[in-house]
Amino acid sequence: MAKYQKLVEPFKIGNVELRNRFVMLPMTIEKVDNYHVTDDLVDFYEQRAKGHAGLIEIGSCYVCDCFGTEPKYHTTTGACGCWDDEFIPGFQRIAEVCHKHGSKVAAQLQLCYEWRASGDDPLLSYAPSKDVPSGPFVGMPEREYTKEEIAEVVKQYGQAARRCKDAGIDIIEIHAGIGYMVMRFLSKYSNHRTDEYGGSAENRARFLCEIIDEIHKTCGDDMPILVRISADDLMPDGNRIADTLELIPIIEAHGVDAWSVQAGFHEAPRPVANQIVPEGEFIDLAKQVKTVTSKPVFPGTRINTLDMCEKVVTEGYGDAVGMARQFIADPDTARKVEEGRPEQVRPCIVCSRCLDNIFIGKPCQCSVNANVWEGVEVGLPQDKPVTEKQHIAVVGAGPGGLEAARVAAERGHKVTVLEKSDKLAGLLTMAQVLNANIEPLVSYWNEEMKLHPNIEIKLNTKVDVDTLRALNPDQVIVSPGGGIIPIDVPGIDGKNVVKSEDIKAMCNGIVPEGKGMIWKAAVAAIKAQGGTVGFMRMGLNMKSGPTAIVGKRVVVVGGGFAGLEVAEAMCDGREIWVIDPAKKLGNGIGIIDKNPTINLLKKKGVHLMPLTELIEVTKKGAKVKNVETGEEQLIECDTVLTSLGVEQNTDLYDEIVKVWPHAKLIGDATTPDGKVYRTLEAVKGGYQASMAI
C-alpha cells in the first residue's frame, strides 16, 4: 500500500460523499468586503478545491446583522454575512467553483460574542450568563440572553442555514467550540443560568439542540449537520471530556451527522495552537468521542503533518483529519498525496503569522505561501507565463531567494541562483537546528529546487559585480541576508562569547572567523556526518546541557524573536538569562505566540531581564546595567551568546544596482530599524519580485 493511502479513501458525512479524508477546517481569513464574498475569497477556496481537499469549510458565516457596526471582537468584521438573502450569490460562487473541481463545501454558522436581533438594534456583547467575562477584547457581557432572545437567535441560525442550502452548500456546520456563543451555553464555566438553558447537561445543550431542530425545519432532514465542539474547554470549572461524552448523545439525538473535535477557549490559560503545543496533543479527545457515537468524528486542533494525519486515520483517532493552516501553506496538499508525491508538500511551520493577522481583523498571511496575502491582485505564477523569457540571477539561497527563483522559473524564465555557502535555505539552516518545525521547510526547498530544470544552483559562490557580469543576466534579484546588528562592548570578542553568526557559519559548514580548534573539530564532525540536523543539535546539546561551545550558564543578549527562540531551545540542562534594553521582551513575536512563549520560558526557569543592557564581557561572565536605574551587576556565566537579530544590509545591492538599475533587494536585507523580518517577509519579497518581472 502506498504511503498515506488511507487518507485518500472516500468517506461520507450524512448523504454527502467526500473524495478523501482531508477536511480543510474553517478560518475567518478576512477576505470579505463588508461581509460579502469577494473575488479573492472565491479564488482562495477554488485553489484548495483544485488541490483536491475533500471538504472545504467556509469559516464564520455570521447569522446576525452586523452592517454598520464596530464589533469589539475584531475577527467578526472578516466574517461572511449570512443574515440576508443578498449574500446567497456569494456563497453560490464558492460552491460552484469547489464543486467544479470535485470538493464538497460546508458553511460554518457562527455567532461569536456580540449579537442583535435586527439591524435596528445596537450590537451588544451577549452571553448565557452576565457574570462571566466574554472572549478576547470584549470584556464583561452587556446583556444576558432572555428566553425570547434565544428563540430569535435560533431562528437566525435556521434562516442562515436555509440561505446556504439555496446557494448549493453541501453541509451545515454549527460552531460550538473555542468559547464562542454556542459553546458558552454548553460549558459549565460560562453558563450559570438557573432556567431550562442552564444547569444539567440536557439544559446546557438545549440551545444547540434547538438550533439543530430549526435547521432541520428550514433545510429538511437530508441536509447534513456537522458540529464543531471543544471536547475539553480547558477553562477553570469548565467542561472536561467526561462532560462532552455526556453531551454528545443528547445533542446527536436531534440529528447530527458528524463531529469535528477541537479543544479550548480563546481565553483559556493553556495554549492549543502554538508551536509550543506538541503536534497531536488533543487527538485523543476525538478518539474518546468515538466511544459514544457511530457518526464520523475527526480531530482538528494542532495537526499539520502528513504523518500525524496518517496516525489519526489508521490508529482510530478519527475517520478523517481536519487542518486549516496546512491548507493555507499548500493548497495542493491533498492532491500531492493522491498523486504519490507527498515529499513535495509545502509544510506549515506553525509560526502563527496567519492567526496574528486574523485575530486583529487583518487579511490572512502565510510565511511559506505569499499568494495567500497577494491573492488575485498579483495572481499565481503558473497563471501568468512570460511572453519574453529572460535570464534571472538570484543572489542568495535563503527563503526569499529560493521563492524568487521558484516563481520566476514557473513563469518560464531561466534562473541562476548564486549562494556563498554550501547549503540551500540561508538562515533556515540554523533555524531548523533551534526549531524542529523549520526542518521540513528546509527539506521542502531542497526537493523543490530539483523540480525545475530551468533553475541552476551554484553553491560556494561568493558574488560581486564581476561574478554577475560573467553571467550576463537580464535581471538581478539580491537576497544577501540581513546585516548582523553590531554590539561593541569590552570583551565581546572573548573566547566565552558565541555570536549568532558563529552558529550560522557552523551550521553551514564554515569555521567562524577567529575560532579555534574546538570549532574546527565541530565543523569537521558536522561535515563528516553529512551536515545532519540531529548531529548539529547534538553538537550544541540543545536538550541536555553544556558543551565546549555553549556552557552550562548562558547569558543570551537579545530578547526579541531570535533571542527567545535560542533561550527556549537551549534552556534544558542549563541556567539561562535573557537581557534586552527594551521595556518588553518579544519584539518580532506576534499576538498569538508572544505571551505563551514568555510564560513557557518563565516556567522553564529562564531569567528574563528587560531594561537590561550588556556593558562588558569578562572572564567571569556578563556585566550588565539596568537602563532605567543605572544599577550594574555581574552575571557569572560560562557563555555569552549574542542573538540580536539582523538589520538592513545594502552594501552588495548598492554596487549591483549601478550596473543593473532594475535590480531588486529582498529579504532580511531590507529590515527597517527596530523591526524584525522573518520567513514571511522574505518569501513575500521573493514572490513579489519575480511576479513583477
List the helices and strands and how they pair.
Blueprint: E1 11-13, E2 16-18, E3 22-24, E4 32-33, E5 36-37, H1 39-50, E6 55-62, E7 80-81, H2 88-100, E8 104-110, E9 114-115, E10 124-127, E11 143-144, H3 147-166, E12 171-176, H4 181-186, H5 201-204, H6 206-219, E13 225-232, H7 241-252, E14 258-263, H8 283-289, E15 297-299, H9 306-314, E16 321-323, H10 325-329, H11 333-338, H12 353-358, H13 371-378, E17 391-395, H14 399-411, E18 414-418, H15 428-434, H16 439-449, E19 455-458, H17 465-471, E20 475-478, E21 483-484, E22 497-499, H18 500-507, H19 517-528, H20 533-540, E23 553-557, H21 561-570, E24 575-579, H22 594-603, E25 607-609, E26 612-617, E27 621-626, E28 632-636, E29 639-642, E30 646-647, H23 651-659, E31 664-665, H24 679-691
Parallel strand pairs: 3-6, 3-16, 6-7, 6-8, 8-12, 10-11, 12-13, 13-14, 14-15, 17-18, 17-20, 18-19, 20-31, 22-29, 23-24, 23-29, 24-25
Antiparallel strand pairs: 1-2, 4-5, 9-10, 21-30, 26-27, 27-28
Organism: Adlercreutzia rubneri
Cofactor: [4Fe-4S] cluster; FMN
InterPro entries: Aldolase_TIM, FAD/NAD-bd_sf, FAD/NAD-binding_dom, NADH:flavin_oxidoreductase, OxRdtase_FMN_N
